[in-house]
Write a structure and sequence with these properties.
By secondary structure, this protein is of the alpha/beta class. The protein is 60% helix and 13% strand.
Amino acid sequence: MTARLRRRRRRWALRGLPIAFAALVVVPSALAAVRISAIDTSNLPAVRATLVGPLGAPAPSLTENGRPVVGYSAVNLAREKSIVLALDRSQSMRGRPLAAAVAAAQSFVAAAGATDHVGVVVFGHAALALTPSSASPADARSALEGLTVDPRSGTALYDAVSLAASRLVGDDRPGRAIVVVTDGRDVSSSETIEQAIAAAQAAHAAVYTIGIGGPSFTPGALRKLAAATGGSYHQTRSAARLRDVYAALTGELARTWQLSYVTSARPGAHLQLAATVAGVGTARSELDLPGDAGAGSSAPSSLIPAAGYSTTGTVIVAVLSGLLVLLACGFWFTARGSNRVRDRIEPHLSAVARTPRARRQRGRVAARTHIADGIERAIGGLARFKRLQVTIDRADLPLRAGELVALCAASALFFGLVTALTVSSPLLVVLMVALFASLPVGYVSLKATARIKRFENQLPDLLITIAASLKAGHSFRQGIQSVVDEGSEPAAKEFRRVLTETQLGKPIDDALADLATRIGSKNLTFVINAVTIQRQIGGALAGLFDMVADTVRQRQQFARKVKGLTAMGRMSAYVLAGLPVFVGLVVSALNPSYMAPLVHTATGQKLVITGFAMIGVGTLMLKKIVSFKG
C-alpha cells in the first residue's frame, strides 16, 4: 500500500513539472511584454519615447532618473490618430504586386477609426500626395482606386517620407505614424535618409516600414528609418501577403504608446527612463542627451583634482577665484594709498603720530573717495544721477551718489555670479542681477520716504511752535531756533541746517527754498511759499502760521481718510500681484520638476516674462484707481 502511494505521488509530481515550467516561462514573458522601442531627443527639451505594451493595457507611468515625470502626454496609436500611407508605385511594382498592394492598403485603411486622419502618398521617380492632410479613411480608399504604375523609372523613398512628414506637421492629432511600403531601394530622391529621419522626428511621427522581398530589395534603409523614429520594420516575400503584414501592424499600433514630455535636464546629461504599465511590468532605457558638454572639448587639466569639476567643486573654485580677485584689488588700493617717504616723515611733521589702524582707516576712506570721484566724473551729468543724490540727502545717509552706484554694481556682480553658478537659466540670472542691483537704491528710497513722512507728521506742531514764538515777540529766526531747540528729528536737524546756512551768509528765503527742495514735501513747499510771500509783502506772520498749520492738518486728515477708503482696493492690488508669485514659489518648492519647463525652456521663459508684464500692467491700473492727488 505504501509503495502504491509513492508511485502515485511520483506521477503527480511529474505531471506538475510542465505547469511549473510554464509558470517560469510566462512570468518573464509578461515582464518582457513592455519595451521602449525608441527615444527621440532631436527636439530638446522635448523628449519622445515609443513604448510597446500588451493589448488593452492602461496608460503607462513615466519616471526620469527615479522621479515621476509630471505633465507628460501618453497617446495610444489605436485611438484617434493621423496616419500617412506611403505606397511604392515604381516600375518594379508593375502588374499583380501593385494590385495586391493597393487591395491590402484599402483593407488597412478600412480598419482605421472613423475619426482618424488617413493620408496617401505615392512615390515612383518622385513623391506625390493624393489626399489632403486631414483626409478621412473613405477619402483615402477613394484615392487608392485606379492607382497606376509610374511611367518613369525611379524610387523616391526618402522624398516620400519627408512629404508624408510635412503633411503631418499641421495635423492636430497627437498620435502620428507613417507607413511605408516598397520593394526596392531609393534611387531618385533629392533628400538623404538623414533628412527624411529629421523630417519625421520634427513631425513627431513614427515610421513603420514594410519591405516586399525581391531582386533589388535592400532592407538596411527601411530598418534605419524605423529604428530612428520609434517604428518597426516588417518584411514579406510577396505583395500577396501584405494583408497579413497589415493585420500584424494594426495590432502593433494598438499596443504602441507615444510618450512625450519636456525635460528639465541639461544638454549632455545622463537620463534613466522607466515606463511602468500597471499589472504588466516596467521597461527601462538609458540615454545621454545631446549637447556640447563633451563634444570637441579637451581633457580636464590635471592641476585641479577631479572633485573640482563637480558642482560643489566648481562653486569652491569660483569662491576662491573671487577672493583672490578681491585680495588683488586690496593690494592695489593699498599700494596706491601708501607712500613710504610720507610714512617715514609723517611722525616728525605731525604733533601726534597716527596709529596703523588710523592709517588703514584713512586709506579706506581715500579708496572710497577715489571710486566715488571716478563715477561722478563719468556719469555725474545725468539727471537720474542727480536725483539719486537728492534721494540720499532726503534719507540723511552718510553716502555719496558715486558710492551708492558702486555699491549697486558690487551687489549685482556678486549675487549674479552666485546665481550663475547655481542655476542654468540666463533669464533668472538677469532677473537676479537686476534685483540685487536695485536693492541698495530701494533701501535708500524707503529710508527717504519714511523720513519725509515723519517730517510731515511733525509739520503742524512745528508751525504752531513758530507761531507761538512770534506771538511772544520773537523774530522769525528766533522762532526757527525754538524749533531746533524743542523739536525732534528730523525737523530739528533740517532747520538747524537752515540756520547754519544763514549764518554763513545765505539769505533765509533761499535757505528755506533749499529745505523744501531737499525734503520734497508738498505741504512744506506750500508753507514756505506762503511764508516767503507774506514776508515780502508784509503782514502778521503769527496768524499766517496758525492758518497754515490748520490747513496742513486738514490736508493730512483728508489724506488719511482717502487712504482708509481705498484700503480694500490697495489690498486687492497686493493680493493680485503677489498671489501668482507666491503660488509659483510654493509649487516650485513642492514639485520642482513641474515648474522646471517655465525656467529651462524658451516657451516657458516667454510665458514668465508675459506673466510679469501682465502683473505689472494690472498693478499700475489698480494703483491709478486707488491713487488720489489733491
